[in-house]
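Take a look at this chain, tokens included, and explain the fold to me:
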Amino acid sequence: MRLFSRLSPFVYLAIVLLAITFFADAQEPKEKNSPNETDSSLLDEIESLRQAMVELNRDLFILEEDLLFPASTQIAVYVAIDIGEYFVLDAVELRIDDQVVTHYLYTERQVKALGRGGVQRLYVGNIAQGDHQITAYFIGEGPEQREYKRAVSIDVSKGEDPLALELRITDSSTKQQPEFSAKLL
């Protein structure tokens, strides 16, 4: 019994379905089939069970997402950069109402991917409806290879709909400094 408690629910379900199929087939009187016909029908049944398991897994994943992150409390924060010579991103720390919800360290490859137009989903979570302050701290290397830490804050009002926020880093050639912004999507 200890073995079954460690199995994933999907594996357990597959074992049960295979056992039911096997015993149901064993109970029915069968005509004499050639071994190849029996093997191919068994393979077809296994393939249909596998396909059903994949569909069930997909449906359960969607339900789990809906339960964990209902639309009325969901918030998603994305990071995008359009930088060149004034800032090299090293880390981002995200706070919601002065509580750290995530801290992310970037590799060189990730920074290059963001610089080529990539967008990273930094955080997905839940917040209560109402007013909130979201603050992002950007840490990296600024002009003249100096350590650089800047913050950007935005006040948001969470309603019934999901909330999406974009954090963006851009170069300002007039100021010769990076600019950090946060906007609702």
Remarks:
- Residues 17 and 130 are 47 Å apart (CA to CA).
- The beta strands are 74-82, 88-96, 99-105, 119-126, 130-141, 147-158, 163-172, 177-184.
